[in-house]
Fold these 2 entries.
Entry 1:
Amino acid sequence: KINDDHNHPSEKETIEVRDFRENIKQRAINETTPIPRIYDEECAKAKLSDTTTVILPSGREMNSAINKARRASTPTIPTTQLFDIPEPFTKTLH
């Protein structure tokens, strides 16, 4: 039997949430601002409907994904101090 009651968010709200998440992710990748502060600033800046605000993921729910995106964009820490010096830099000028 098909039920006429719908309880999922509309397309508009889903798009707003996706855009909100993407804004936070891009800021986390491009800035060194702490993720909770980015989340709070984006919440304050966003012009979201009441319905969208209700379905937004919390900062805690987003933290793992945002940290993962930030880690993917940062270079890895070397595991050793040994490295090859390129040939032009091995000779002194005098």
Entry 2:
Amino acid sequence: MITENLYPYHLVNRLRSRVTAQESANRIAFSQWDNGQRSSLTWGEVGDRTSAISRHLLALNVIAQENIGLFAHNSMNWSLVDFAALQIRAVTVPLYATSSVEQAAYIINDANIKVLFVGEEAQYQVACQLPALCPQLTTIVVMNDNVKLADISINTMHLSTFMAQSQTAYQAELDERIAAHNLSDLFTIIYTSGTTGEPKGVMLDYYNMAAQLYLHDERLQLTADDVSLSFLPLSHVFERAWSFYVMHVGALNVYLTDTNQVREALAEVKPTVMCAVPRFYEKVYSAIHSKVAKAPLVRRALFRCALSLGRSRVKALAKGRKPSFINRAIFPMVDKLVLNKIREGLGGRIRFMPAAGARLDDDVIAFFLSAGVNIKYGYGMSETCATVSCWEEGKYPLGSIGTPLSSVSVRIGKDDEIQVKGPVVMKGYYNRPIETLDTFTADGWLKTGDAGKIDEQGNLYITDRLKDLMKTSNGKYIAPQMIEGVLGQDKFIEHIAVIADARKFVSALIVPCYDSLEEYAHSINLKYRDRLELLKDSNIVALFESRLKDLQKNIENFHQVKRFTLLPTTFSMEKGELTPTLKLRRKIISERYQLEIELMYKE
């Protein structure tokens, strides 16, 4: 049992302090934005509802450290169930809302889940097929009352009924469970999204979370007045840990149930902070540049001038200097005319935005910084309970992923691998002792699978993803994420998957951004019956050849994409080609498009 008090924040204590304190009981704890409608709960209401859920779980004989499944999109109910499970010392096991029957069954069986909470109709339809595959599953609780319950072989009810049937007789046992908590308890098992092989359950304990809360207090300036828009999946460690940190400081989490409504939610919610993955920033960057490209010459020139002044300002402030006299004189005007509109697109109140989850190109980061959007670029993984390193306030070391959090040690090991040690590192993989042993060095450092370096200022850099590195038949090592990051900025490219392993040269599968491409086709009066005919047109092929040539001019020749195939359908989570944080599942993509790949290498 962990007894040291280096990090005095037990997560359940922190949340219950909000629930029980008189000054916060009537303060809004959570909000939810759904199709333009906003609903909220106070901390007092959160306390009442979580206690009701906890008591019913105790009535189901859920024991301490038993695994509870949570299979839903983001919502207030997601966090209520999570908090309720943690109160009774159960372990929350989140499943991605897009999981198939097979994916859900794998996790439920591996984690021996008996009680499963599900969100919407799509998750419930999957859940109805699980009893035949998961014999230990006894109870399904549906969080949306609008979902019609089916007649299936196990106990099923709505969350509202589940809470209403809660018995106060179990309150004493609930109080005992809360009093018995300790930092050695697991609070979650997060199954990795499986870009390589089957997902593994990452075991995280309260000590990991306590360290993250404490160390983020040192690094970030989040306050109780902040508003965070939660749209990345709570089933991923990035958003989950961030949401707990927001609750820890008493700020407001606003859950977005439909990620297709991010633009509308930004305008309505006007968040001050928000986590996002690189693909979000890339799409905003591409959309803005596409719009500017159609503007009159004067407006395009003003846009470039504004960004140039913004970038000079960032560089000066990062070095502790005042911007130049000319910059100070002109910047307020161009900021109001140009840059403020970019910030307004994000709601107009953003103070800072954590960014992590994949590689984010320097040009994209520099663009947002120049526009006055304070990106906090960082690095972490499920195995480290999220953050390992991030940019410090007022420092913008482009190319790096910032300095490690205090108490988190980072070293560069064999093959330049980044290795991590400290209070944020997981206990291991659930039911996987051999894989756990393999992922640590003999002296106890976590092997991240990323190659990197550390500069004289202590900034950490990722140079390659070791598991993603490809070796051509000519012996050249290819870093696909670097190539994809450069090419993926283009307004005509929605997704790109680089192919190179054991091949003579680099090729790529490209999913066009069809909004931009169809607009271009219309502008040149191109007629076509369907997307396949559009993609085969010589004008379209020539367009992509030209744009790739321009984008790759600063990339070494052996890294350049020599051939490509345009795909008529997008990569998706539903088809298993993308993880929930929009990373490519290369193995699945390679298998699904094997014919298209082979044709690119045919002489």
